[in-house]
Structures are given as structure tokens and as C-alpha cells.
Design brief:
The complex is a heterodimer. Chain A is globular. Chain A is built from ten helices and nine strands. In chain A, the strands form two sheets. Chain A has a six-stranded mixed sheet, with helices on both faces. In chain A, α4 packs across α5 and α5 packs parallel to α6. Chain A is an alpha/beta fold. Chain A is about 35% helix and about 25% strand. Helix content of chain B is about 85%, strand content about 0%. Chain B has 14 helices and no strands. Classes of the chains: A alpha/beta, B mainly alpha.
């Protein structure tokens, strides 16, 4: 039996009155590493945020782990774009990762030794344990992204959503992050990644969601990477190629 | 008689000292969250927006605490409404709403009371603090500190990464208005000490100085509260000794502390920074 952890039916989302996601339906199976790709302004981040119920949808339904998002929020970890974070915030690496344990704590309950050790363990997994006491702004882009992955790990979630995790990240950090994401999927977690770079999609993802407001393609990388499918998503960006006499399918 | 002898001698000065110290602490604590969330202008706006609420409280003969919280939170909601439902940017919306509230407050107070009362509300009159005022301040102080202590985890998570906090189910809108409510309460407590016009300085100046001194939020909160108290005591000293408006002297004391920290902070102070750069350049030649 196929175990679908995310089922989306006819999702419509608008952003300041502009339709950003039009009628997307798809389902994601447990244990898959799925990339969301598409041209700039294709509504990739909006789609991700609407799956998380951070942006209200106009129409359609989203089922996460068979339930409404509100009931399963704590089982869902989110890693924001690096540009969304104030890196001057007075917080250490360890305390930032500890926030990942907050969803598991009750109101008024504070993180204790147990949570600290768990957070340190998560930092160790991303190779950042030695930086636990640093202020987060002192790290390089790749190190920062690894810390935020550690925070998501600390949450012990079932589904991980990452928004452009490889922007401004060095090669070795990118490799570490991809390795951990693959490990997560092998252990039965599901990972959804907004990604802009087509070149490495083949090595990284089991499946791709190709989006340009509408769902253009969804399937294995080989299925989505057909000239005809890619052409439909990126056609507007290839106009200049046409004008130069290069023909696109 | 020196300031210190006077403090021991006069009840009104003891009340003034007590009240302004509490104001220093709670402004310092709440101010940390205000500056970390980039809401300094919002802090200024909400403190001004308290004025019509104070006037309405006079009109109905209720404690001005209730009216102030009402008009402060109402203004915060109006600001949010205009921002979310039009293309008008947040700071513009703040500017429109708080000046409107402040202007109507000025008219209402002048009609209901007198220009002298208006002057005292706007600029503070710490030496006229009555016992009942002091106890209100103590009560508000206790409430604000308890709220920040109890909800520290939620305040930290939503201030640091609001999207992640919302994703795991924190009611981030509610936390925003909760903080706005704390802000109006702090403003009410500060009415007599520094007055409405200058309370924003007590919110952001000590917090900004603390921000330059530490990389840990809880430490920033303690430093900010400490510098708030020191500013209050120094300010009160000059206010009493030279017969100056207490709000102004307290704010300038806070500014003086900020300037010292700005110059001398070990990590972020401009003097040490310049020295480090100079040493680095020297080592390269």
C-alpha cells in the first residue's frame, strides 16, 4: 500500500490579489526526497508556505499525515530562507537549536539538561558541535544552514520543509546537508525542498515538483526533465533565446 | 540638603525613586523585545496612542490604566488593519494612526482637564507621585515581569524566527498583540515618571546599549533592566537637584550610558573596533 503523507487537491493560493498557485493537485509518499523547482516568481515559496498553512489558501484541501495541518504542526519542521533571519540576534548556536525542542515542550515548561543534550547531539550530526557557544552571526552561510538543519532535526519531525537551503552555502556544507536529508528519507521521514538550481536536481531528489503557478510536472527526475516539460515551465524565460534564433521545444 | 539626605527624609522622593526604578526595569525588559523585533517606531506610536485612553478614563472616572490599554491596543489593531489591507507600508500606517490618536487625545485632555494636566501627562511629573500611583506601577511591574518570565520561550521563538514559530503552531499574531498590550501597560506605568512623549527612549535606549554588550537574550534583558534603573536614579538626582523635568533628565542619563557603551563595548564598541582594524592592518604590512 502506498503511504501518502501529503495529499493536495486543487490548491489555489493568491498573494496580494495575484494568483500564485493555480489548481495544484498531487500526493507525496513517505520517505521521498522531493524538490520543488520552477522559474523565479513561479510561486515555489508561496506553495511551500501554503502547505504549512502560513498563507491561507483560496480553494482546495491539504492533508498532512492524513490530517489537517493544525493537528500535526509539531510533526512538521520548517527551515526558512537564510535571508529571512536576523543574524545579529543575540542568540548562540545551541540556543537556536534548542528552539527546535520547543514544540515538544508544554506551555511554561523550559528546556532542561535532557533537551540540551539532545540539541548538542543534533549539532553533532551536522558537524557543528564545536560551534555551540558562538553567536549565530559569526558563522559562514553554510554553517548557518547546518545549524538550522540541526534545529529541524531537534524537532523530531515526520516531514521536513526547507526553503532554498543551498543559497549562499559552500560545497562541503551542501554535501553534508544533502547526506543528512537522504538519511532522513531512508529512516522513513519525508523531505520537501524548494530549489532553484536544475543542474544538481538529478543527484539530490527522488522526485520533482515542477511549478510555474500551475503544476507543470510531477514525478521522478527523469520524467520531469523532458525538454517539452521543462520548456513549458521556463518558456517565458527563453523568449530571448528565441529572438536570438535558438529554438526551444 | 543633598539628594541622598532628601531621599531618606521625604516620602514623596522615596515614592518617586521607587516608581522610576520600576519603570526603568520594565521598560528595559519589554524594550529588548521591541528592538529585536524591529518595532522601535511601533513602541513610540503605541505610547503616544495611550493619550486618548487616559482622557476617556478621566471622563468616566475609572483608573486610566484601563482606558490606556484600550486605546493602545485599538491603535495597534488599526495599524495592522491598514497595513494588511492596502499597499500602504507599515511605517506609514504607524505614522497615520498614532498621530491621529495623539491629536484627539490632546484635544480631549485640554477640554476635560487643563493644559497643566496635559503637560504632566506628556512630560511626566515624578515628584507628584501619589501612593496609589506607586502601587499601580508596582502592580504593572509585577504583571509585566511575570508575563515575560512565563512566556519567555514563546517570546524568544517568535522574535527570532516568526515563520518557524508560526509553522510549529505558535499564535504569532496573538503574541504580537500580547506584546503591544505589555507595551501600553509599560507606558501607563511610565506616565508620571518620563511621560508619554519620552517613554520610547526608556524602551529602546537601554535595550540598544545592552544589545551592544552581549550575545545572549536573557543577559541582554538583565543588562537593559539594570541600565534602565541606573538611568532613572541618575535622572531623578538631576531632576531634584537642579529642578528640571524628570522625564528629560532620565532620558538624557540613558543616552549618556548608551554613548559610553557605543564607544567602549568590548565587542561592538567603535573604539575597540577601530583598534582591532588598525592592529590587523599593521600586522599585514
Amino acid at each position: 500500500m502506498i503511504d501518502s503523507v501529503i495529499i493536495i487537491e486543487d490548491l489555489h493560493v493568491s498573494y496580494y490579489g495575484n494568483e500564485a498557485v493555480k489548481g495544484v493537485s498531487l500526493s507525496v509518499e513517505r520517505g521521498k526526497l522531493v524538490g520543488i523547482i520552477g522559474p523565479n516568481g513561479a510561486g515555489k515559496s508561496t506553495f511551500l508556505k501554503s502547505m504549512l498553512h502560513l498563507i491561507p489558501s483560496d480553494k482546495g484541501s491539504i492533508k498532512i499525515l492524513g490530517k489537517n495541518m493544525k493537528e500535526v504542526r509539531k510533526k512538521v519542521a520548517y527551515v526558512p530562507q537564510r535571508s529571512d533571519i536576523d543574524w545579529d540576534f543575540p542568540i548562540t548556536v545551541l540556543d537556536a537549536v534548542l528552539i527546535g525542542t520547543y514544540p515538544l515542550l508544554r506551555l511554561f515548561q523550559r528546556p532542561k539538561k535532557k533537551q540540551r543534550e539532545w540539541a548538542l547531539h543534533c549539532l553533532e550530526r551536522v558537524g557543528m558541535k564545536d560551534f555551540a557557544r558562538r553567536q549565530i552571526g559569526e558563522l559562514s552561510g553554510g554553517q548557518q544552514q547546518r545549524v538550522f538543519l540541526a534545529r529541524a532535526l531537534a524537532q523530531n519531525a515526520e516531514i521536513f520543509f526547507l526553503d532554498e537551503p543551498f543559497v549562499g552555502v559552500d560545497v562541503s556544507s551542501e554535501e553534508t546537508i544533502v547526506q543528512i536529508l537522504k538519511e532522513l528519507c531512508r529512516s522513513g521521514k519525508t523531505v520537501i525542498v524548494v530549489h532553484h538550481d536544475l543542474s544538481k536536481a538529478n543527484d539530490y531528489f527522488d522526485q520533482l515538483i515542477l511549478l510555474n503557478k500551475e503544476l507543470i510536472g510531477f514525478g521522478t527526475v527523469a520524467e520531469v526533465f523532458q525538454p517539452e516539460v521543462i520548456g513549458r515551465a521556463y518558456s517565458s524565460q527563453f523568449n530571448w533565446l528565441n529572438e536570438m534564433g535558438v529554438s526551444m521545444p | 540638603m543633598t539628594f541622598f539626605e532628601a531621599v531618606l527624609h521625604y516620602g514623596f522622593l522615596q515614592k518617586a525613586l521607587m516608581t522610576s526604578s520600576i519603570v526603568g526595569i520594565i521598560c528595559g525588559v519589554v524594550g529588548c523585545f521591541i528592538i529585536l523585533r524591529g518595532m522601535a517606531l511601533m513602541g513610540d506610536a503605541i505610547s503616544h496612542a495611550v493619550l486618548p485612553g487616559v482622557a476617556i478614563s478621566y471622563l468616566f472616572g475609572i483608573n486610566f490604566f484601563f482606558g490606556a490599554v484600550f486605546s493602545g491596543v485599538l491603535t495597534a489593531i488599526a495599524i495592522g488593519f491598514v497595513t494588511q489591507n492596502s499597499r500602504i507600508k507599515h511605517d506609514t500606517s504607524i505614522g497615520i494612526m498614532f498621530t491621529a490618536a495623539f491629536a484627539s487625545g490632546i484635544i480631549m485632555i485640554t477640554m476635560l482637564k487643563s493644559s497643566t494636566d496635559l503637560y504632566h501627562i506628556l512630560f511626566g511629573n515624578v515628584l507628584a507621585v501619589r501612593s496609589s500611583d506607586m502601587w499601580i506601577t508596582v502592580g504593572i511591574g509585577f504583571l509585566v515581569l511575570a508575563a515575560v518570565y512565563l512566556f519567555y520561550k514563546e517570546l524568544l521563538a517568535s522574535s527570532f524566527d516568526e515563520t518557524m514559530a508560526a509553522a510549529y503552531g505558535l499564535p504569532v499574531r496573538l503574541i504580537h498583540y500580547f506584546l503591544m498590550t505589555l507595551l501600553t501597560m509599560v507606558t501607563v506605568a511610565s506616565l508620571q515618571t518620563v511621560g508619554i512623549v519620552l517613554v520610547v527612549a526608556m524602551l529602546i535606549t537601554p535595550a540598544a546599549a545592552a544589545y551592544l554588550l552581549t550575545e545572549r537574550l536573557w543577559m541582554m534583558i538583565f543588562l537593559s533592566a539594570g541600565m534602565g534603573v541606573i538611568s532613572s536614579v541618575i535622572g531623578l538626582y538631576f531632576s531634584y537637584t537642579y529642578n528640571l523635568a524628570s522625564g528629560a533628565t532620565i532620558v538624557l542619563a540613558a543616552t549618556a550610558i548608551f554613548i559610553l557603551v557605543f564607544l567602549l563595548s568590548p565587542k561592538h564598541g567603535i573604539i575597540w573596533k577601530a583598534l582591532r582594524i588598525k592592529r590587523k592592518r599593521a600586522s599585514l604590512t
